[in-house]
Each structure stands twice: as structure tokens, then as C-alpha cells.
């Protein structure tokens, strides 16, 4: 029978309930003790759970039950409740996160704040908190890994659920002696871990299969390799719904101009998923770094104005030297601004008349190029198409050359005025 993986719904934040070992053991009857006035009654617990499911804040639940926020938070932690909350983060939660993020496992902190682990990671990144050192796996995390491997949940979804890297989950499962339900019998744990590690480098499946063979593993084709990795949860994002904390983190990246590459690794999202969500949030074009992450300084308004004024009128290399930029950078920026090089613009009827008159009256091709603001080679090629070759021996002669300094500058108007054959062009 073919096993298929089990995708998780977006609202799932826990695969299996964790029962502390102390509660799981059989206990002897306790002696009767005096009733405490602050004890939690069954009715209060049910009210708390109902308000929690309705996504009420801790302050709201505390006001409803007539208890302090600390008491409500402690009771939620003791009950092990977790949720993908849609509530905004309050100052108290941010302070608690900043204080404890690097000192205790994220899963424990998520339980105390009644948030999902992925929400904790996204919020911590938004607040600029440093990555904590790898904390030991908690009993709750081990329970989720066991349940996920047994149910055939993709490993990538398990890692996103508990907030651990993909490779870390695989290593922990191997230490626990677990075998994924979707793993074929002919794949060893070592081969699976190695294939996932190579896939994380971005190598193609055919290249991964070849590298595995070179390392002594069985020969696989790219199709079976890809199917196996996808069953285990490898992919460029696994289609889960975006939560509010992830949206806030994406907005923050676009506002501050931060690189999106660490964001993809943090959220476990593909570049396509990041772009799709940015478009959905209407973040396209709002990135503070207009040039993206190309090397070199950002173009200023003055530089763009200079480029608009000179592009196509003087050689592009001179523009690049003046602006202190590379030739390719200038060409890219001109294309981005929609500028058309003057040497490449189509010839108009007046320019065609000017070229014909210049050919008939013996005006040099260099003077025509200067008058029309084009390259002499472009003028020569276009004149040849019109049947007027400037290097043709049969071309009418202009007479003896004079020094350029003593000649009248040639302009488009002076060339057009040569239609009457008796009008001289130069002194």
C-alpha cells in the first residue's frame, strides 16, 4: 500500500497534547486539604478555554474571570494551550519575549505567551532579538516529532510547527529512533539525511543523485529522488497560510530595506511565496532600496537628472566616468528610466533631407554627424541605405578644405537650407 504524507491545516499549532510525566504516573489518593479561595474551579477553567478559543487577550480573560493577568497566563501555561492568534502584540508580551527569548526554549516561551512557535520566531526577528543558542529539545517538542513521523506529516511542516531547522528535526528523530511513515523501506536514514542536506544547497535533483552515487549510496533517478524528498516535506515552501506576525515581518523588511534571503530561511518560505505575499500586501515598489541589492551606491535624483540630460548626446563612457560608475551600471539605469539612446533613434524626414543635401554639397560625414547628434558610423550606414555613400568617388566635391576653426558650424537648419543649390554652407 502506498503511503501518502499528511499536510497540516493552517490553524494547527500542536500535533499531540503533551502530558507531563508527573501527571502520567499513577498517583495515590491524596489526603483532604483545606479549600483555597484562589483555586481554579472547573467552571472557571471552561470559561478560560472558551475565551481562549475565541482569541481573547489575556487582559480580557482576566477581566472576565476577575483574576490577574499573571494568574491567567500561568493557568494557560499549565493547561498547555497554544493558538495561532490574530491579536496584536501588546507591550507586556514584547517585554517578556525580549527578556526570555535567548534564555529558554522557544516552545516553552510560546506556551507561556499562548502563541504559536512560528509566531514567536517571526516576532523576535521583527524586534531585532538575537538568535538564542540551540536549546535542548523539550519533551513537548519530542512529542510533536513522534506524532508527526507516525502520521506521515512532512518534516518541513514539523520543523515549522516546533520552530526548529529541518536538519535539526531529522537529527533529533534519528536520535529518538524514529522512521518517517513516508520513507521507503529501501532508503536508509543516513541516505535520507544526506539527500535533504544536498537539496538544501539548491542543487538540482540529477546532480544530487550523482553526488549520492559518488558517495557510495544506491543509484537513484531524479524523479524518485524528488518524490521521496517531497514526501518528507522538502520543498520551496509548503503552502501554509500566512500569519499576522509573518506579514508584519515582511512589511518591516520592505520598510527598512533588509535582505529577504534571511527572511526566507526564517519563515521557511520560497522566493515565489515571498513575492506573492508582498504583492498581496501591496508592498511592490515600496522597498527603500530602489536598486535592489546590486553593488554600488544608490542613484540620486541629481545623477538621474544628469543622465537624462546627457544620455544619447555624449558617449556613454564619458557619462560613466563623470558619474563615477561602470558603463554597464549606466546602461542598466538608463534602460530602467526608459531612456532611448540618441544614436539609435529612428531617422526623420528632415534628417534624411539633411543627409542628401550634405552628400550633394560635399559636406563631410563628421560634420553631418555633429549636426544631427549621431555617431559618424551611424550616419554612414544610413546614408548608404538612402543611396548616398559619402566615400563614393562619384560624389560631388566640396572644394578645398579649410581649417575647422575658420568654418561656420554645420547645423541641421543649415543643411536643410541647402535645398537651393546656390546657398553656401561654410565660409
Characterise the protein shown here.
The protein contains 23 helices and no strands. It has helices at residues 21-24, 42-53, 58-65, 69-79, 91-100, 106-113, 117-126, 139-151, 155-162, 166-175, 189-200, 205-214, 222-231, 244-256, 261-267, 271-280, 301-310, 316-323, 327-336, 349-360, 365-372, 376-385, 412-416. Mean pLDDT is 76; it is low at 402-406 and 422-427. Helix 6 packs across helix 7 (117-126) and helix 12 (205-214) crosses helix 13 (222-231). Among the domains are: 301-343; 349-416, no CATH class. It is an all-alpha fold and 427 residues long. Residues 388-409 are annotated as: Disordered.
> What structural category characterises the helix and strand content?
mainly alpha
User: How much helicity do the residues have?
Assistant: 40-55%
**How many DSSP E strands?**
0
Could you report the average pLDDT, rounded to the nearest whole number?
A: 76
Shape: elongated
State the distance separating the first and last CA atoms.
98 Å
> Ranges with pLDDT <50 over ≥5 residues?
402-406, 422-427
The percentage of residues in β strands lies in under 5%
Rg, rounded, reads 36 Å
Order of helical and strand elements: HHHHHHHHHHHHHHHHHHHHHHH
The helix count comes to 23
Instruction: Specify the biggest β-sheet.
Output: none
Amino acid at each position: 500500500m502506498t503511503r501518502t504524507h499528511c499536510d497540516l491545516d493552517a490553524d494547527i499549532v500542536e500535533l499531540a497534547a503533551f502530558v507531563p510525566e508527573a501527571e502520567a504516573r499513577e498517583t495515590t489518593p491524596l489526603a483532604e486539604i483545606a479549600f483555597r479561595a484562589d483555586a481554579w474551579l472547573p467552571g472557571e477553567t471552561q470559561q478560560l478555554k472558551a475565551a481562549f478559543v475565541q482569541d481573547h487577550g489575556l487582559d480580557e480573560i482576566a477581566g472576565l474571570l476577575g483574576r490577574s493577568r499573571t494568574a491567567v497566563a500561568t493557568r494557560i501555561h499549565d493547561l498547555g494551550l497554544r493558538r495561532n492568534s490574530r491579536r496584536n502584540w501588546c507591550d507586556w508580551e514584547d517585554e517578556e519575549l525580549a527578556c526570555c527569548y535567548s534564555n529558554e526554549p522557544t516552545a516553552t516561551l510560546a506556551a507561556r505567551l499562548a502563541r504559536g512557535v512560528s509566531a514567536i520566531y517571526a516576532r523576535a526577528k521583527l524586534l531585532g532579538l538575537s538568535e538564542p543558542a540551540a536549546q535542548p529539545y523539550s519533551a513537548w517538542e519530542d512529542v510533536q516529532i513522534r506524532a508527526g513521523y507516525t502520521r506521515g506529516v512532512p518534516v518541513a511542516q514539523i520543523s515549522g510547527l516546533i520552530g526548529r531547522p529541518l536538519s535539526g528535526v531529522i537529527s533529533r528523530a534519528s536520535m529518538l529512533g524514529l522512521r518517517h511513515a513516508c520513507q521507503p523501506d529501501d532508503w536508509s536514514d543516513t541516505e535520507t539525511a544526506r539527500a535533504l542536506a544536498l537539496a538544501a544547497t539548491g542543487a538540482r535533483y540529477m546532480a544530487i543523485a550523482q553526488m549520492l552515487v559518488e558517495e557510495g549510496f544506491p543509484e537513484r533517478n531524479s524523479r524518485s529522488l524528488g518524490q521521496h524528498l517531497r514526501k518528507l516535506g522538502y520543498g520551496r515552501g509548503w503552502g501554509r497560510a500566512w500569519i499576522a506576525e509573518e506579514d508584519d515581518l515582511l512589511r518591516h523588511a520592505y520598510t527598512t530595506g533588509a535582505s529577504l534571503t534571511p527572511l526566507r530561511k526564517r519563515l521557511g518560505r520560497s522566493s515565489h511565496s515571498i513575492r506573492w505575499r508582498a504583492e498581496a500586501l501591496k508592498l511592490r515598489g515600496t522597498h527603500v532600496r530602489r536598486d535592489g541589492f546590486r553593488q554600488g551606491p544608490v542613484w540620486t535624483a541629481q545623477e538621474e537628472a544628469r543622465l537624462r540630460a546627457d544620455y544619447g548626446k555624449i558617449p556613454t563612457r564619458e557619462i560613466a566616468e563623470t558619474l563615477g560608475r561602470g558603463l554597464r551600471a549606466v546602461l542598466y539605469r538608463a534602460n530602467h528610466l526608459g531612456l532611448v539612446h540618441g544614436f539609435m533613434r529612428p531617422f526623420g524626414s528632415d534628417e534624411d533631407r539633411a543627409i542628401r543635401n550634405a552628400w550633394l554639397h560635399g559636406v563631410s560625414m563628421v560634420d553631418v554627424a555633429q549636426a544631427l547628434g549621431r555617431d559618424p558610423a551611424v550616419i554612414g550606414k544610413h546614408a548608404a541605405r538612402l543611396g548616398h555613400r559619402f566615400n563614393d568617388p562619384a560624389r560631388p566635391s566640396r572644394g578645398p578644405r579649410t581649417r575647422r576653426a575658420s568654418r561656420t558650424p554645420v547645423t541641421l537648419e543649415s543643411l536643410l537650407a541647402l535645398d537651393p543649390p546656390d546657398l553656401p554652407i561654410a565660409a
